[in-house]
Amino acid sequence: MFSWKRLLYVLLIILVAGVSALAGAFAGGLAVFNAVSGRLQTPSTSAPVLAPPPSTPASVIQLQTTDIETTITQAVAQVGPAVVTVVGTIPGVMTFFGPTGDQTVSGSGVFVSPQGYLLTNNHVVEDAKEVSIILSDGTQQQATIVGSDLYADLAVLKIDGAPPAVATMGNSDVLRPGETVIAIGSPLGDFKNTVTVGVVSATGRAIDSGRGYLIEGMIQTDAAINQGNSGGPLVNLAGQVIGINTLVVRGGNTGAIAEGLGFAIPINAARAVAEQIMQKGYFARPYLGIRYQSITPGVARAYNLPVEWGVYITDVIPNSPAAQAGLQADDILTQIGDTALDENHSYLNTLFQYRPGDTVTLTFVHDRRQMQTQVTLGETTGS
Fold first, then answer.
1. CA angle 105, 110, 116 (to 5 degrees)
2. Facing residues of 242 across strands?
3. Same-domain status, 183 and 271
4. How many domains does the chain have?
5. Is residue 328 part of a domain?
6. Per DSSP, which regions of 214-357 are E strands?
7. 319 and 376 inside one domain
8. Quick check: helix, strand or coil at residue 207?
9. What is the per-residue DSSP string for 204-215?
10. C or N: which end of the chain has fewer Cβ atoms within 10 Å?
11. Is residue 243 part of a domain?
12. Separation between Cα atoms, residue 265 and residue 263, nearest integer Å
């Protein structure tokens, strides 16, 4: 039987359920909206966000400059004004195609005397007809060549008037490997008073000059030395000159390329040469008076010579000490004093152990017989 009461009851239940569903949906949506709005407006504490640019002007950082003095800068400041660039003019020569133009060469030098004397390498000014120097402040002056020593590769120049500064000489005999040194000079002739720093790599090195003798007692350094640095000073941390930069070796006989192989003449040896040149105008070397060809084991085998080492005398200068001692062409000199000529003792280096005027015993081979004679050495300028 149909009942209105029951129908109204069902409709009431449906109405309440619908209203409850709509209210729940509305509340859920409102909650989600509030949650999303809160995240957009308030940064989360769990996830970092980029702060907005400040509205105030950016602060300015002020740097205060400070004068920083170090041992190296003090040494450079002490020696630098005494260092110069040396410029030489070598006259042109006549060739098959006509005369060549004059050639300009450059190197470095350092003042060693208040009287205007300065020290450089012989190869910097060798064959130059005119020499000028450029001071550290850019001023250019003429200079004269007082004298030079080919075998030590040293030359003394002089300017008129007093130099702007004079370098202090150190003691190269007390140098030790690992000691910091500073090279000052004008590489390539353009970069004047360039400063490079390194260490003493070794002392007592011997370098073949390519002219039949060794330059002995050299200081080896890894301070950068390039063409144009020749003649410039090698300086210790006390601001004292302990060497004269001379050459750099780029490679060996094997073809390998080397870096950091620079060499300098010890200042004690350079000073002895310079002082005599300033006094006499030349450096006196012992003189025997022979022309010769060096003998090695290969040469001895090729020419069936009776000795493996020595010098073959091709000519004896008339009235020379050798002529007075009885040496003749075709004799072979094998020993000077107590030193036999061999791979480590060349003729010139052995001869230069003596002084002009010394009397020494020479051992030589004449007609395949070993003989001895006494000789009093003469004097040569060594240039």
1. 105
2. none
3. yes
4. 3
5. yes
6. 214-221, 233-235, 240-248, 262-266, 285-287, 290-295, 310-316, 332-336, 339-340
7. yes
8. strand
9. EEEEE-SSSSEE
10. N
11. yes
12. 7
Q: Do 307 and 241 fall within a single domain?
A: no
| One domain for residues 126 and 199 | no
Across the chain, what does the average pLDDT equal? 82
291 in the same domain as 304: yes
**Domain check: are 322 and 259 in the same one?**
no
Q: Is 306 left (phi over 0), alpha (psi -120 to 50) or beta?
A: alpha
Q: Provide the CATH number for the domain around residue 122.
A: 2.40.10.10
Tokens of 253: 């006989």
Exposed (0-12), middle (13-18) or buried (19+): which is 245, by Cβ within 10 Å?
buried
Tokens of 181: 């040194």
User: How many Cβ atoms are within 10 Å of 103's Cβ, its own excluded?
Assistant: 13
Q: How far is residue 257's CA from residue 248's CA, in Å, rounded to a whole number?
A: 12
Same domain, 309 and 242: no
Quote the tokens at residue 178.
């690992």
57, part of any domain: no
Percent of the chain with pLDDT over 90: 55
Q: How far apart are CA 152 and CA 376, in angstroms?
A: 23
- Between the alpha carbon of residue 56 and those of residues 43, 50, 52, 299, the distances in Å are 22, 17, 12, 89
Rounded to whole angstroms, the Cα distance separating 287 from 383 reads 12
Considering the domain boundaries, does residue 12 fall inside one? no
289 with 270, same domain?
no
Give pTM, 2 decimals.
Answer: 0.72
Active site residues: 123, 153, 230
Instruction: Give the domain range for residue 252.
Output: 168-280
- CA atoms of 51 and 274, how far apart (whole Å): 74
Distance CA 29, CA 81 (A): 87
Provide the token pair at 17.
């359920």
Residue 41: what pLDDT?
46
Helix, strand, coil percentages in the chain from 3-state DSSP, rounded to 5: 25, 35, 40
* Residues of the chain where predicted confidence (pLDDT) is lower than 50: 1-2, 32-33, 35-36, 38-53, 56, 58, 63, 65-68
